[in-house]
Each structure stands twice: as C-alpha cells, then as structure tokens.
Design brief:
single chain; about 525 residues; alpha+beta; Immunoglobulin-like; 10-stranded mixed beta sheet; 6-stranded mixed beta sheet; 10 helices; 25 strands; about 20% helix
Amino acid sequence: MKALLVIAVIVVITGILGFGSMTVSADDNNESNCAQILNETAVTASTDTVLTRYEHSDRPFTKIVFSDGDVVYGYIRMIGDVEVEGDFINYQVRNGVLVGNFTHWRDGLPSEPPNITITQSEALSTAGGGEATLYYISPNSSIFYTVEPVPTEPCWVVCKRDGNNTLYNLTVVDAQNGTILGYGVPPPAESFLYAGPEDTENCTDTWYAHFNSALYWFNAMGYSNSSLVYPTNQDLKSYIQSSDTAVIYGVAHGTNSVIYCGCTQEYTAMDVKDWLSGYPPLKFTFLASCEAMLYADSPDTFGYEFRKGATNGSVVVGFVGMGQAPMGAWSYSCDWQNTFFNCLAGGWTIGSAFSQANKVYYMCANNTAFAGDAQLKLVPKVCRCDVKTAIKGKVYDVNSNLLSNVNIAIYKGTNSSPEATTKSNPNYCVVVSSTGPYWLSASNISYLTLDTNKLPQRRNPNYPDHITGLLGSPYIFNFEGDYGLVPKACTMGYALQSTNRWLFIPMDSNGCYHPEWQLSNWKAMESVHSWIYPS
C-alpha cells in the first residue's frame, strides 16, 4: 500500500487552533476513567425536563448518556436540509446540573437555504456514485481545506466507500451548477491503497490539520519536537528506541497491525515489538489511523506493543472504525483531537481528557479509544525513564566521543543472565523490575567490552562496583572517563590523546573542564596497548 505518514516525535531533554464559546466547571478534570456512550435518544426542549432549563428553541437534540452518569445534549446545526460543517450546540449535564456548554456558530449564513438546483441523484452521477449530503463547507474545515476558494453556497459532498465500508473519497459538487469544486481528505485507512488522499499518483500531501494540531499542542505543553514526512523504518526505529523520546504522534493509512509510513514503506506492530525489546515503553502514543486501536488490549497490535502491554505509566490513544464511521465522525475528528490535547495541556489525566473530548464531540465517541494508564498526565512534562528502577545515561569512548549502537546489559548480583538489555543512541535507559545490587556491561564489535564489576579500585570517577541506590529518582550512570570504551584498534594519535587525559584535566570544545573525563594511568595505557597490539 502506498500512503503517507507524518509523525511528530516529542523529544524530552525532555492553522491556529480555534474553538467556539466554551464553558467548563473547575472540577471537570477530576474524572478518573474513560466514559463510554450507553445510549442515545432524540429529544427536544419541550420533551426533556433537563434540556428545557438551558435551551428554549424547538431544535432536535440528541441526548447521549455516558457510563459515568454524565448526560450530553447535542445539536448539529442544520439550515433546512443543509448541514453547517463545524457548527453545533452542546450541553454537558452532571447530576442535573450544567457543567459545560460548548457552542460553535458561524455568522453570516441565511436562516433558510437557497433553492438547490442540482438534485442528489445528479450529484451522485457527477461524482461517480456513493452517498451524498448537503453541506455548508466551513472556511476553517480540516477536511475540505484543499477546496479553494471556499464555497459560500451549499454543496453536495459525495462519499465513496469500498467493499469494507471504508470511506476513501470525498467529492465536493456545487449544488447550484453541478461542477466539481474539489476533494476532501478522507480518513487514513488501510483500504485506501495510495500514497495520499489528495494526489495518489504523485504520492504527495498529508493530513495537515491533524498534524499541525498535534505540533501546536505539544509545543504548548512544553515539549521540544522533531517531525518527519515519509519516515523510513530506520527513522521510526531510532526515535522509538531513543530514551529521549517520550511521546509520539502519527497520522497515516493503517490498521491495528500495519501502518504505511511512506510511499513504499510500512511498519508493523511486530516491528514495534522488536524495536522496543529491551527498551521501556513510550509514555504516550497517538495513532490517527482508522483501525489503529482495534483490539488494543491484545498482543501484536499497535495499541498493545507501543506500551508493551503496560497499564501503568504508558498509554496509547487513537482511532477505531473511523473509516467506516459516518462522515460526521471524521469531519469532527480534528476538533476532538484539539479538545483532548487542550485538556491535557491544562493538566488533566488522559482518562478525563479523553472523556471530555468524547462529551464535547460525541459524534466521534464511538470511533476513538485508548489503552493503558488513564491516570497518566502529560503536564508537567513526562520523561521516558522516570521510574524508580531505571538506570540511564550516555555512552562515550575513552576520549569522550559519544557512541551509538553500544549494547548495554544490566545484571543483578551474580546472575549470569541480564535483567534487561538496550542499545545506546548515544543515550541509554534500562528499566529493571525491582531494586537491588546491579552492574552494567557495555559492548560493541569495534570496542573492548567493559564490565563495571571488573574494574580496578583506583579509578576516576569512583562509581560503586554495584548500583544499589534505585530507591528514588532514576539512577544516572554515564560510561565516561575510566568507564569509557576503548577501541580494539586505535591510532597513535588516539593513544596520545588518552595519555593527555591522564596527565591533564580534559576540556570540551567550549573550553569547559570535565574532571569526570580524566583517566587513571591504567585506563590511558589500555589505549596505548590497543595501538601497539590491536585486536
């Protein structure tokens, strides 16, 4: 399958988004669990004793009852038979008391639609079949932003679905003259087997509204970030394995087991399982793919493997059944995402933010899901290795050059089998299951293996032979100075540099002294030996 992936990788060393009027009570972020829809019924203010307190029109509302007892009354704006994209009224009620009111209402639209000269059947014929609905296209649409200029009159939006009922094409037809005005962006789904939703032949474009939303909110939450378009599997692997990467956002065609990350590339849930072997799970992963969260509690799915099955300290959020959902669910999905991230930026838990987004944009509630720790927060910023039983640091060679692809293994006491393994990039992080006495081993095909329990007593700096202090914050252990790696074969210049680091306190490129990089005489002589007797 040819498709696109845009991934926002949030690195922890650690457009503009708009809402209509929004009122939320101060204690709304106290929810602890994900609220699910129990039932929906059609009501009006005249037939519902609660709605009549807040709504005085005869508009037809949908009453949605959630599993936590909250009730949402929602109305999607209609002008005659024409739906106004993005406009709605939402009342959120808890124990009979209004706790939230969310409204988006465009100005400048008529109270009655103009005469529609193109019939539904004519629009279907023009677009080549499907299902057609009348819309006033929003000037801020996250789905029809490629249609320029934005039409001011009603349009037929013709949706096409494949044999799996997955939405794969959105055609905008002028309801007055029958011309095709452009195309919308369908949701990312496996069954749309092309490079992208807009220009499949040239493999271009992507879901910019969703992607820019994630970038905006992660920046707002204080996370530095890197972003890639059409990443390779090696790109993905390096970010997923990096101990700096705490959260990942991706939007792409895909299912719960395969995501199409470029025009000719894909990665699977089994790849993620392999890449995370020996590494801690991601803290937060958002997968904006149609079926990404299907069976998310089952192994060999993205919803499971990105968190390694953890229910504490890790969570995966994303879409499920979005391609088969009514068009309204997809058209509000970016708004749902904005509300979710807005709540997270305010310090809400994942579970409470998820529930609130579902209540505000109940149209999406049946097509969003999460798995993992509902109590996790992204503000204040989270770190990949912030557990008590984590050991992390950087890996240098003996002359203080950072090293990647060094195999790190941690052993407990006299055990011959490692408790955990990982690779440096050049940072590393290993997480063990319990506190206790541990020692580390660092190895690479081009360097002499270093075991921290076999070093001479006279060394600088004097780390203990065994790590025992895993009772508070993560333990920092840098492979540097006497703990740096020595090449199996080095040049005379390299050996002389090591000798100078024995005789003098090393400086970095900025002229700052680093006594922790100074070598003992035996360590400097290891480099000399490697020069004279290479292996």
